Amino acid sequence: MKHLKLLTFVNFFANNLKLLRKQKRLNQTEVSLSLGLKRNTISNYETSHSEPDLETLQNIASFFDISIDQLITIEIEDVHLNGEGEGREKTNNVHPNVHPNVHLKAKKGENLQLSELLQQVKKQDKIIATLSVAVNSMEATNSRLLEEIERLKLENNRLKKEIPQIGQEMGGANTQTA
After folding, report:
1. What is the pLDDT of residues 142-154, one digit of tens each?
2. Which long-range contacts (CB under 8 A, 24 or more apart) does 119-125 make?
């Protein structure tokens, strides 16, 4: 069942990306340049050969002025048309900003689960980002501490070498080093 949901996501996303790109009368190169991606990446998304990470998905949704939920959970091609010119091609007539429950191909419960999964992914991404900042901070602290340890070792070795000399200057006191 999990694989079916993922395939539904991939198929919706791939079809919707291609449809939205054509609706804007853009080629893959123009979309890729606008999003800072390679042209073959857009092609791979449209043919379901690869899927974007969450940040790229957000950028794509923003570029096409559509929610991520709509981009991945509904088949935009099946969404109601805006009514302008019945004879016009579907891709020129799509109204992407619709209520997510309009003309869904997947079952309602599956879309809800996908939305919940997306919310979990967003929460996990925030946790990962927070942990990444914490780890980077700890790495910086550890680096500073290691530098301080090395400095103290050098200072300790220098002092060990000076002890015999200081002892001789004091008139032969105990000059043994620890």
Report:
1. 888 889 999 999 9
2. 121/54, 122/54, 125/54
